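Hello Y.,

Per our agreement to keep a running log of every chain we model this quarter, I'm adding this entry. I've kept the format consistent with earlier entries: sequence first, then predicted structure.
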Amino acid sequence: MSNPLRTRALDIFRWLVCCAFLTPAMAIEAIDSGVVLGEYPVIRWMDNERVIFLGASGEHCKREDRPDSYKRPLNRIAIFDTRSRELSWYGEKGIAGLCYAEGNISYARLKVTAGFCPTDEWMYFRGRLGQEAALPGVPLDTYSCLPEAEVREAPPWLEEARKSGRLFKPLKPEHGWVEMVVHRREGVRPNPDYPAAILKPDGTRVPIPDVFRSHLREGFSLFPPKYIHVKDAYFVVLTYAHGSGGSSSRPAGIPLAWWLYPNGSVEEFQLRNPANWTWGTLIFTKVGNLWVRTRFGRAQASESGIYRDDISGPVKLVAGRVMMNQSVSPDGCLVAFGNDESFDLASGGGVFKLQVINACEGKLK
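Predicted structure for the entry above:
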């Protein structure tokens, strides 16, 4: 005759084991900076420990023509040390358009006088961090945060090629340009273009394998190449919009994207589980891919967060409404992002605090 207490204990043990396998563990700690991201936030890494970003100062300014109805939030530059978990504020309030790379900094500062901020009165600053000066606003190279004219002067051969109608898009300055060729097809949508060659700064032409055109049927197009520093390559996404309203189910067996390397070689992008591709925005880390899933509505809000692309399906690592703009540290391990853990849907905006996770400590596999 069986012992009822022993049988009950075995049932509980089996249930616990089952839960351990079925419930994804949130194994990565989210380090909270305690600072709310500012309006139009920018997040950049200074090195593998410190992140620089635009935070909400908590102060506002008013318009002289609308002193009782208009309050503009004032951003301020913040620096968060992930190792010591200390935060420091930098410079004045009223900052926008922050750019930081390799010690170079650039930003615009709104003119605020006695709590009032006239429209479109900005001062522009750029230079080495701590030594920036007020200078006229100019187009910047987003990779170096230096004026484009200083790092990317178009050579004569490029100007001549453009005069003939050829289309070029800039890559990182040391990589040169990518030539985009229009793919003409029958259909109602505009003809897409695709990468055909890389033109080095010295004018050397490196052909790109013709892997794109066969997929550019009606409804398909390519996003411009986007540089991903973890791979030292450019991510080229194949988008699909077809049918009524411009979207429908993506046909099976179609590539999602490719890696385009500076030497001209191409590699098809692969997910660990192809069924995960609908889960949201990709984050590329040194140890694997992450997804940002954003769900709207109270019934689905609990699904929002950061997930791991796992062969068995998405594994949730961080809960909360995560903003779409994230930044990965130079070594590919730390991910900084804005997160609203309160799921405050009533206000319409939410309070997004800067948080950081270490994907490498989570041992993604």
